[in-house]
Amino acid sequence: MAFWRSKKTNDESPENAAQAPEAVESAATPGSAKKDGGGGILTKLSSGLQKTRRVLGTDIRDLFKSEGRLVDEEFLGELFARLIRTDMGTGPANKIREEVARQFRGRVVHLEEVIQTITEEIRSQLRQDHGGLAKSESPPTVILVVGVNGSGKTTSIGKLAHHLTANGHSLVLGAGDTFRAAAVEQLTIWAGRIGCEIVTGKSGADPASVAYQTVDKAIEVGADYAIIDTAGRLQTQSNLMQELQKIRNVIGKRLPGSPHEVLLVLDATAGQNAISQAKGFSAAAGCTGIVLAKLDGSAKGGVVLPIREQFQLPVKFVGLGEGMQDMAAFDPDSFAEALLKG
């Protein structure tokens, strides 16, 4: 087991730039960021949802002529088909179709009216009671992060750690994905750039042991947070599910009541496949929230709707690119607005 405190590094030489993750500006926690302005949530979401909005907006606009369109069964069927293309699933798409039918059936309507109704229905479906990170009554707050390899899990941890330290919090990272040397190396680079402490183990070491040592170190140094990466092989492998349960048990023994937050990172480009990921990990790890990564690279941004519908898990953060401002707090109102209107 290895532990060290990494010093912040500002070395932007070509050699280091090639292997270090992109630096990110502080991502706001839900409810704390402005919803307008150059760096606000709406602006970030609008940029990140360009591909989804292009597909959905163009498809819906194609349903209308300048004189409007009669809302009949033919129109409603065509609208449903367009909605499905964003991977929002049949359940949420049906609710939108039914609401449009309830308000406009038998009437000739124009595009703007339907867009407004769809936006309001999406906003209603995405409404969640809370989206902020959980916080324990006394530190450290332990955050376990799970997800399939390639979902953006380790990078999301780095961005979350950057956000917390930028807001004055101390933390310890745990490189619990011991089966992937690249994951450990990547998280170690993040720790160096951020200037936070990290616990690692030898390749193939027991992930639960790394998790235990991370919480132990966070308690010892009085850190505000402990964020632990986990293995991310296919969610259908029962041994991985057992491993996640073991990590939870070990963490809970060291610090009763922990983990306080279990974040599931999902790849937005996976679309409906993200649902099966959520099913496997949610059951084994007891997920409490979702980070939707790579939203900017997908035309399937609608997948957030069936995720909310089926699991009733709050979406906490969304990944919106690879630049400095690539993570944003999830805000249902802004998301609904950006999905159709931009």
Automatic annotation (TrEMBL):
Gene3D superfamilies: P-loop containing nucleotide triphosphate hydrolases, Signal recognition particle SRP54, nucleotide-binding domain. This is Signal recognition particle receptor FtsY. It holds the Pfam family SRP54. Residues 17-28 have a biased composition (Low complexity). Part of the signal recognition particle protein translocation system, which is composed of SRP and FtsY. It is a peripheral membrane protein. Keywords: Cell membrane, Cytoplasm, GTP-binding, Hydrolase, Membrane, Nucleotide-binding, Receptor. PROSITE patterns: SRP54. It is found in: Cell membrane; Cytoplasm. It comes from the Bacteria. It catalyses: GTP + H2O = GDP + phosphate + H(+). Belongs to the GTP-binding SRP family. FtsY subfamily. Residues 1-41 are annotated as: Disordered. Involved in targeting and insertion of nascent membrane proteins into the cytoplasmic membrane. Acts as a receptor for the complex formed by the signal recognition particle (SRP) and the ribosome-nascent chain (RNC). Its EC number is 3.6.5.4.
